[in-house]
Automatic annotation (TrEMBL):
<dbReference type="InterPro" id="IPR029016">
    <property type="entry name" value="GAF-like_dom_sf"/>
</dbReference>
<keyword id="KW-0238">DNA-binding</keyword>
<protein>
    <submittedName>
        <fullName>IclR family transcriptional regulator</fullName>
    </submittedName>
</protein>
<dbReference type="InterPro" id="IPR036390">
    <property type="entry name" value="WH_DNA-bd_sf"/>
</dbReference>
<dbReference type="InterPro" id="IPR005471">
    <property type="entry name" value="Tscrpt_reg_IclR_N"/>
</dbReference>
<dbReference type="InterPro" id="IPR014757">
    <property type="entry name" value="Tscrpt_reg_IclR_C"/>
</dbReference>
<dbReference type="Pfam" id="PF09339">
    <property type="entry name" value="HTH_IclR"/>
</dbReference>
<keyword id="KW-0805">Transcription regulation</keyword>
<dbReference type="Pfam" id="PF01614">
    <property type="entry name" value="IclR_C"/>
</dbReference>
<feature type="domain" description="IclR-ED">
    <location>
        <begin position="72"/>
        <end position="254"/>
    </location>
</feature>
<dbReference type="InterPro" id="IPR050707">
    <property type="entry name" value="HTH_MetabolicPath_Reg"/>
</dbReference>
<keyword id="KW-0804">Transcription</keyword>
<feature type="domain" description="HTH iclR-type">
    <location>
        <begin position="9"/>
        <end position="71"/>
    </location>
</feature>
<dbReference type="InterPro" id="IPR036388">
    <property type="entry name" value="WH-like_DNA-bd_sf"/>
</dbReference>
Length: 256
């Protein structure tokens, strides 16, 4: 966000507080739950919800007495996706990667100290994965976060790793020395692999995307059942992911 000497509009800030209270863990809420999350008075929350509902951004279910995100948000996400050059430039290559591997393919964009999934093409059979386009995750989450972390400037990396590391499974590395060693290896190889570290039974392979200035801006990768990856297939998929990432970076003007 630009740093301007302008005061924000409080009512709009409050409306976004309501929208931001909806998460994958709380996709539907009563007005009391929204008040608890936002600290808004009931009359204010109700007026804002009614306004958002009138514009299709919020839906109200009279059966459950709960509010949900509206379908207008999906339209906005489609507009955003169509305006992102990186998504348009990447879509054909990512579709080819999914066809070549038969596994689920995703792309996440770096945004501050978080990442946002902007592309997902899922395998028609086998495991389905919770991460979806539009969802935001911390950079300490999963194979895509690890790839993005690996190419951040050292001061930003140090700041992010100064906080406790989340543990998703018994295989998740939470020793910072071990994690930094893994990150340096990604910097060297330009591809990363994790096995059962975010979800048991799932293997992820990821690679970085760079812009014309040589800065990390995104990560792409493949997710699949660990049992489906023989040593040979794992190596082949690593090369396919790495090659696809390099092709996208080159389309964006990056030259090693």
């Amino acid at each position: 966000m630009r740093d301007l000497n302008i005061n924000t509009i409080r009512s709009i800030d409050k409306a976004f507080d309501i929208l931001n209270s909806f998460t994958p863990d709380t996709p539907a809420q009563t007005i009391d739950e929204i008040m608890k999350h936002t600290k808004l008075p009931k009359s204010t929350a109700y007026r804002l919800l009614y306004t958002l509902e009138g514009n299709g951004v919020i839906r109200y279910d009279p059966q459950t007495l709960k509010y949900k995100p509206g379908f207008k948000l999906f339209e906005y996400s489609q507009v955003l996706a169509s305006s992102l050059d990186i998504v348009k430039e990447s879509e054909q290559i990512l579709t080819e990667l999914q066809n070549q591997t038969g596994k689920t393919v995703l792309m996440s964009l770096l945004e501050g100290d978080t990442m946002v999934y902007v592309f997902k093409r899922e395998s028609q059979v086998g495991l389905k994965y919770a991460s979806s386009a539009g969802e935001r995750r911390p950079l300490t989450y999963g194979i895509f976060g690890r790839v993005l972390l690996a190419f951040l400037p050292d001061d930003r990396l140090k700041a992010i790793l100064s906080k406790p590391l989340p543990k998703s499974t018994t295989y998740t590395p939470i020793d910072k020395t071990v994690l930094i060693e893994k990150l340096m290896n990604i910097r060297h190889e330009f591809v990363a692999v994790e096995i059962d570290e975010t979800n048991i039974g799932v293997t992820g392979i990821g690679a970085p995307i760079f812009n014309i200035e040589g800065s990390i801006i995104a990560a792409i990768g493949v997710l699949g059942p660990t049992a489906h990856f023989s040593d040979n297939e794992l190596n082949e998929t690593k090369q396919l992911v790495k090659d696809s990432a390099q092709r996208i970076s080159q389309k964006l003007g990056y030259s090693p």
